[in-house]
């Protein structure tokens, strides 16, 4: 009986040590991959939570980065939708918020298409792989443009400072996450 308990304890320790080592390897892979991005600290922070899923898979890393960008974009769209319901907005503020909402809707659509394209491409190679990756790169790049266009509508002093600051801060974060996703997509595309 004591021998069985000691054996079970020993096997548990080996399993825990292996799991910890695996998590460290995955986290190191994420850190190394994020060095190629414009915002490496944001990249590591946003992807480390998913280290167990990513492991050392470049494709899973890209899928996760796109999913994080999509989640952030959806959250931004929800936030902007709520702003359209604020009472007392000036006509110009309301117009800028509505324009931003349209850009965020396009943004969510483009990143969503990218996530689906990457999932549906399977293990294609050669020209077919490049075609799929070109689609993803185009859509994610267009999503970055949507984000910039949203903030353009809030330029000037005629707008509510709190709304302007709040939207710009959120769009800046979304831009960093999306920029990182695009860098990881581009890196993945060139290595395969």
Automatic annotation (TrEMBL):
The keyword Ribosomal protein does not apply. SUPFAM superfamilies: Plant invertase/pectin methylesterase inhibitor. Residues 1-22 form the signal peptide. The keyword Metal-binding does not apply. Residues 25-184 form the Pectinesterase inhibitor domain. Keywords: Signal. This is Pectinesterase inhibitor domain-containing protein. It holds the Pfam family PMEI. Gene3D superfamilies: Invertase/pectin methylesterase inhibitor family protein. Transmembrane segments: none annotated. It comes from Ilex paraguariensis (yerba mate). One of its GO terms (molecular function) is pectinesterase inhibitor activity.
